[in-house]
Write a structure and sequence with these properties.
Layout: E1 16-20, E2 39-44, E3 62-68, E4 80-81, E5 92-93, E6 106-119, E7 122-128, E8 137-143, H1 146-149, E9 168-170, H2 172-181, H3 185-200, E10 216-220, E11 223-230, E12 233-239
Parallel strand pairs: 9-12
Antiparallel strand pairs: 1-2, 1-8, 2-7, 3-6, 3-8, 4-5, 6-7, 10-11, 11-12
């Protein structure tokens, strides 16, 4: 493979870090906005953690977040990938997808900006609808501009509509675990809704044919959530 000339190489310095309700890569939504209950914040890091950096951003409802797929960088990039929307079997060129194994490992998501928290030495941008795992390095932030960024007649035949969602149920034991995990009603309702919205997207690999005996798990909202596929639906079995 042809090497890139040194004169065309650039260094990108992260300006912040994502702190997310998604504690691991598995079960993170495949696109932003699919899980409205997903929340977290971006902590700007020195020397970018000055309140002057975000003056005026408080008037924006949404922002673009450019970031690094940091958990995939050591695995390199691929010319062709297997998109989940195509069943995980058909290959496409990586630049025709939003796959993580890209030449420069860069990603971009639009998220809702709910609050900006600043002091003389810290800046936190609170966001919702994110598809970002805990610890994601942020390299840039830009305001979402509706008249320029929303293209109503845009076309992408492989994912023109949102994916179908699955039914999600909680076993009695899981409901009890949820109450113990979140005694506060508001927190409990949020965690329950987060789990439902995440699992509705069917986070397992597209090529898996799950059996009722197989248990899946992911860290959501600070808790280990486990589930099984039973009778064409997802049943939450435990929240630890």
């Amino acid at each position: 493979m042809k090497e890139i000339p040194t004169s065309q190489q650039y260094t990108i310095t992260p300006i912040g870090t994502v702190h997310s309700c998604f504690g691991e890569k598995f079960a993170v939504p495949r696109q932003p906005g699919l899980v409205p209950s997903a929340r977290g914040y971006i902590e700007l890091t020195p020397p970018f953690n000055h309140p002057d950096m975000v003056v005026g951003l408080e008037d924006c409802s949404h922002i673009w977040v450019q970031f690094l797929f940091h958990q995939c960088l050591d695995r390199g990039w691929q010319m062709k990938v297997r998109p989940p929307r195509l069943g995980g079997n058909k290959k496409m060129g990586v630049l025709a997808t939003r796959a993580t194994h890209r030449p420069n490992g860069l990603g971009m998501s639009v998220v809702r900006l709910t609050n900006i928290e600043t002091t003389h030495q810290s800046v936190r941008l609170h966001i919702q609808g994110l598809d970002l795992v805990e610890g994601t390095p942020v390299v840039d932030i830009k305001p979402y501009v509706p008249y320029a960024d929303s293209i109503t007649d845009a076309h992408y035949p492989f994912a023109q509509e949102k994916p179908d969602i699955m039914d999600v149920y909680f076993q009695d034991a899981a409901e009890q675990h949820l109450t113990l995990a979140k005694p506060n009603l508001e927190d409990r309702q949020w965690l329950r809704q987060l789990i439902i919205e995440v699992l509705q997207q069917d986070p397992k690999p597209a090529f898996h044919q799950p059996s009722p005996e197989r248990e899946y798990g992911a860290k959501l909202g600070g808790h280990n959530v486990k589930w099984r596929y039973l009778n064409q639906r997802i049943e939450v079995t435990a929240i630890e």
